[in-house]
Amino acid sequence: MGERGASFGWHKGIATAVIVGTVVSPALRDHDSFPLSTYPVYASARGSTVTLSTAIGVDASGGTRRLSLAIIARTDDPLIAESLVDDAIAAGRSDALCAEIATRAPDGVVAIDVVAERHDVDAHARGNESLLERTTHARCEVRR
Amino acid sequence: MSTPWRRVGEWLGEPAPAERVAVLRILTGLFATVYLAVRLPVFTGLADRSRATFEPVGVLWWVDAPLPDAVVVALVVAALVLGAAFTAGALFRATGPAFALVLLVLTTYRSSWGQLLWFENLLVLHVMLVGFSRSADTLSVDQRRRPGEAAPSATAYAWPVRIAAIVTVITYLLAGIAKLRIGGLDWMSGDTLRNHVAYSATRLEVLGGTPSPFARAFLGQRSLSTPVAVATIVMEIGAPIALLGGRWRTGWVVSAWLFHVGIATLMLVVFPYPLLLVAFAPLFPLERLVHSVTARRKSASSAA
Hints:
Chain A has five helices and four strands, in the order H-E-E-H-H-H-E-H-E. Chain A is elongated and about 75 Å long. With 144 residues, chain A is α+β, with helices and mostly antiparallel strands. Residues 1-6 of chain A have low confidence and may be disordered. Chain A folds into two domains: 2-41, no CATH class; 47-141, no CATH class. Helices cover 36% and strands 26% of the residues of chain A. Chain B is an all-alpha fold and 304 residues long. Chain B starts with a helix and ends with a helix. In chain B, 48% of the residues are buried. The mean pLDDT of chain B is 92. The chains are: A alpha+beta (144), B mainly alpha (304). Chains A and B meet through helix 1, strand 1, helix 2, helix 3 and helix 5 of A and helix 1, helix 5, helix 6, helix 8 and helix 9 of B.
């Protein structure tokens, strides 16, 4: 014979309140963490210009080319790649990151630049050139 | 006790067959184990990350340096083995809580490198609820070894699933509140959403990925962004209606799923837990899956 709803005990009531309170608590404290979160996914206002940190390849003629996520950060996740390059620039470790990426550089690339690029995302959306500014934080040669 | 609280108590205390929480155990355990296996390089790659970017969060707040490489690899291997035992319901009194805790530590560790990732929060919370419940009384290795332990119906089989459903709903509600709190009502104008989609496409290209071909089409139709932004907020703030069950629940689940399909299509950001519907499973009477499979087997065997 199964239990009835009325048998829902006070201990489960307290446990329910504690669990719900714990999951809601980040929003009350405005503190994002893991796995308890305020879930601020896509919540922040974004302007139409953004600055993105990345690494680019330089060929023998001085031209630039995009590198893959795997070469930049050994990942398939742009969030992780972006935070890796951001953190390196912020912590003054651009040279070390540059040297590390250089070990994975594809054929035809003679140097790596760790850069911050400002883009007009509206222009990008329209299919136009979006790069407004590029600041180089580190350059390193590719040794083969 | 006043009537509304009594009703809430009755709803939370409603008994359910053992299959309900057992099916949730299998779904969450299978998802988590496969997810860990697929993302294995990301987790093992943590061993090579620079310690300068280590910012411990959550239950690891007290750790002052990255874990030794051997510990990270041991955690990943332990998680895979425990995940298989969790899913199969083997030695569950030990492996249920153990898997929940190892998964919590491993995913927290992954989020402790300067970038909180929201893909895994709900999965971890669900596995914690299921891992510490009586979810292996049936459809499990343990039940085969010790048959007859499961009661036909009990609150203990329903309550963890109800709480998991409430947690699912709260996560969406909090996401909606965060958008209004941080972005204000302007978030619904559509410009913020549009800029997020455009930002995501630009970021992918700058970081060597390939942006979604649908992003440009969406961004070219300015009139679309406002209704999509309003629908997003309505879906997230309206999440509690899913707890009413029936058509309210199903309608909400469809809209939440479409929201994730939209994100995946436009931004190539995949939230696999809701996309595969496992995140929404606690909102449904899961025992019906078992009954349906059993009935099909019976009809197939009687036809033969």
